[in-house]
Amino acid sequence: MSGTPHVLLVMATRDPAETHDEFMAWWHNHAATAAKIPGIVSYRVFRCSGGLEREAEWDGFSLIEFEPGLDAPNLLFQSPEGKAAMAETKGRGGRRFILGSDSVHQVV
Fold first, then answer.
1. Which of 16, 25, 86, 100 is the most exposed place for a label (fewest CB within 10 A)?
2. Does the predicted model carry a pTM greater than 0.85?
3. Is the pLDDT reported for residue 23 higher than 80?
């Protein structure tokens, strides 16, 4: 399928009771569940090691790329696989921020 892929950026912080390593281990396991959501072509998890100008406010972020032309937010929140992935995050402390894009300007 041609076109621009829908990309989601998910930023997250750990529960205050968790270490950074424990949180990242949980996220890597969670990614295996989330990767089963239909239409995902790439799911990458990044560990924040520090901010360039100050301490990082987030523990990590992920970039999730869907096949072009798909309704990524609907698949994420409404598909059985998406609901299973979201259920894994319920009750966890910390913060989460999800931002989507359906256009890209590639410079390099």
1. 16
2. no
3. yes
